[in-house]
Structure formats: C-alpha cells, structure tokens
Amino acid sequence: MSCEEPVDEKALKEKVERINHAYIVLSGKGGVGKSTVAVNLALSLSLRGLRTGILDVDIHGPSVPKLLGLSGKRVGVYNEEIMPIEVYTNVKVISMGFLLDGNEQAVIWRGPIKANMIRQFLQNVAWGDLDALVVDCPPGTGDEPLTIAQLLGAKSSAIIVTTPQQVATIDVEKCITFCRQLNLPITGIIENMSGFICPHCGKEVDIFSSGGGKKLANNYGIPLLGSIPLDPDIVKSGDEERPYMYFCSKTKTAEKFDEIVERIVYFEKSKQTASKADTEKEIPVIPPSQDKKDGEVNSISHKEVSMKFAVPTNEGKLCAHFGHCEAFALIDTDGEGKVVNETYVTPPPHEPGLLPPWLSQQGVNCIIAGGMGSRAQQLFAQQGVQVVTGAQSENPREVVEQYLKGTLQTGANTCDH
Predict the structure, then answer these.
(1) Which of 25, 111, 212, 337 could serve as 164's disulfide partner, Cβ 3.0–4.6 Å?
(2) Structural domain containing residue 107
(3) pLDDT digits over 227-239, tens only?
(4) What is the domain-level CATH number for residue 49?
(5) Are residues 79 and 153 both part of a single domain?
(6) Tens-place pLDDT, residues 297-329
C-alpha cells in the first residue's frame, strides 16, 4: 500500500456511508489509558452483538495490536482491498502496527503523509457494514484526530478519556475546545484510573485525586459516561495480550465498562429516535399572540397539534429548580388542546446531558418548569424540545392547561445559571 496513493472521494464516501456511527476516542494527555479504554469499549460493543471495528490511527505509537494479542500479524489484500484482521467476536481491526516489521521500527512522517494513510485506512479497507467503529487516536489535538474527524463528518462523535487529577483535566479542556471548533459532538467523558480498590481489605484509595471527570462534565454540560477504577488486572491483561473484556468479563471493572457502553448505546438510540421524530412530525412552533398580557406566555391555540408536556415535580408539585426533580409529570394533549393522559415517571440519575435525550425519547416536545439553567435549555433545544420557565402554579395539570389557553402566569427563571 502506498502512502502517496490518490484519494477516490466517491469510494471514501461509500465506505463511510456503511458505518452507522464512529466513536473517536480522544485524550488531551498521554498515559491516561486511552487505548485500553478504546479496545475494551469496542469489545463490549461487539459482545452485545454489534458489528464492530477498531481503527487505530496512532501512526507513531500503535498499541492496539498488542492489547488485542495481534503483535506480529500482517494484513492481506483481496480484490484490491486491504483485509482487516478479525478477532474474538468478529471485531475488525486495522492499525499501522500491522504494516511495521517490528515494534522497534519508527515511523518518521510529516502531517500530509499521515493524513493520506488515515484516508486509506477508511477508503481501502474492507470494513463492510459496521454498527460501530471505535477510533483510537494519539494524545492531543494534532493531525490524526483532525483528519479522522473531518473524514467521518456527521457519522462521528467523540469520547474523551481523562484521569481524575487536575494536570490531566486541564489538557482535556483543550480536547473539548477542539471538538467544539470542529462541530464534533461529544458523546461523553470517561474518567479512567478512578480510585484503587485494595484486593485485600476492599478499601478504595484515590491515588490520582478524585472527581476530575465529573467536574469537567458539570462545567461543560457534557455527559459523564462513567468511571473505571485502577485495576492491576487490566495492566496484566494488556501485558499478556489477553483483552480484558474478553477474558475478565465477569469482574467488577468489566461491569463498569458494560455500564458505560449501555449509556453510549442509549445516547445513540435517543439521538436516532429524536432525528426520526424530526422527520415524521412537526415540532410545534409557538405563534406570537397579539393580545398577550404581561406575565403570560403564548399559547398554541391557533395551531391544531397534539403535544406531550413534561413538568418536573417534587412531591407531586411543580418544583422551582429543574435539577431537584424527583419525577416528571408527562401530560399528553390532543389537537383541540385538551389533556388526554397524565403519567408520572422517575428520571434516570441527573448526570450532565442525560435528561435532554431521555425526555426526547419519551416523545416530549415541551417542558414547563419553574427554573432551568441556560446550558440545559441549549441541550433541550438541540433535541427539538421547547422550554418554558418561570411557571408559578404548583399543579402540573393546571400548568399545562393554562399554557394551552395562553393564561399561564410566569415570573423570573428561578434557576438561570
């Protein structure tokens, strides 16, 4: 394979179209266990029956072959396509490591050559149809993550790996800025090496401080996907080239990986559901009212649509702060503006960024709350969910009925931060 081979844009597009979604695993700093996380996330996805691929774009320091027990393997060519190596539950893998003569061989390339090689890893590899492609990038925000993010486009999102200490989270902030400048969605943050559980006494020790990932998630409104403890067996499995999620799938740490993957799959399904809803139904647009009184909000009485409202409650009453909600009142209305159903559901844990896709998946298209932070409102807007704040009545049903009549009295947003 030549690193100077010209790119066929049509062939590249066709390959990318056959990938349902790609997760670009990033870290702002080396040594956080990013490759270990990427490999084990991919294995966990495949163990769920998803057609999974691993693309290692760490050109200068590929470690995926070692972690998967593929050291010394070489790729073949069939029908002018590079055949990825398949392991375990038919996970397809490609890495620069498969093209080197030995672990000691150095790749001394400048940016354009690396970018062209990464293009070939997509265009010329027989990936087939994939439900998920996990991309392992080198640390930082250089050529490799920039190239793969641009090539995959809307098919991709980022998973950012950090360790708890401040020196790591500072560099992760640069990763977040990188993603936002590229308009690359962030699926979430994973905090690796999060505490060490003594195998003898069971006591947990925060070797690398604690809470760095959660603080980042809160500050930037990004989901915290989960925390993975510092586990000597993960290190041992890597050294022995025995993938952890395959050989240690019944351990507590493996359960942490599975929980993270559960959240990742959940977010992806929520996004697809929201996207499908956008194409199948019209999100109601609130028309301007010509006779609205001060302190009232516009109604939708001029537009015959059915809606589903969500009202955050505490002890059955509308709660002033959205984050204090213990249950949501989900209220359905018909095209005539009448309430036809009212149910109460318990939300998932209030982790950053989790409630917007969850409520969207419930079919909600309008939230009426006492107060909600501006960042949360932005996340709901991205899901096509309208937010009304400052509601003062305590009865959820009455709040919705007043809104539909255009008589809902509103005050200041009690949670605008």
Answers:
(1) 212
(2) 9-275
(3) 888 888 888 888 8
(4) 3.40.50.300
(5) yes
(6) 444 433 345 788 999 998 888 887 777 788 899
